Automatic annotation (TrEMBL):
PANTHER family: PHOSPHOCARRIER PROTEIN HPR, PHOSPHOCARRIER PROTEIN NPR
Keyword tags: Cytoplasm, Phosphotransferase system, Transferase
Its EC number(s): 2.7.11.-
Family matches, as InterPro entries: HPr, HPr-like, HPr-like_sf, PTS_HPr_Ser_P_site
Any matching Pfam family: PTS-HPr
Gene3D superfamilies in UniProt: HPr-like
GO CC, one annotated term: cytoplasm
Molecular function in Gene Ontology: transferase activity
Source taxon at top rank: Bacteria
Gene expressing this chain: ptsH
Compartment(s) of residence: Cytoplasm
Protein name: HPr family phosphocarrier protein
Boundaries of every HPr domain copy: 1-86
Length: 86
């Protein structure tokens, strides 16, 4: 299962939103990855997410495989679309 989403919050995936994203991804048993800028990183790794340097308006793909993959992708896409409460 995968979905494409655009980063909406003004500051992009900096420390606080990246932390929220990793925490949410870690709630699921599925393998969760983020595809952006030609790279694939583990969505449960703060260093992986931060290494992408994602800013506002950038498009990413959230991809998950496993028992709760649909729920994981939906929850992470929802978090991104909410702008991380910013």
């Amino acid at each position: 299962m995968e979905k494409t989403v655009v980063i909406k919050n003004a500051t992009g995936l900096h420390a606080r939103p990246a932390g929220m994203f990793v925490k949410k991804a870690s709630e699921f048993t599925s393998t969760v990855e983020v595809l952006a800028k030609g790279k694939t990183v583990n969505a449960k790794s703060i260093m992986g997410i931060m290494s992408l340097g994602l800013g506002q308006g950038e498009e990413i793909v959230v991809k998950a495989e496993g028992a709760d993959d649909a729920a994981a992708v939906d929850a992470l896409v929802e978090l991104i679309e909410s702008g991380f409460g910013e």
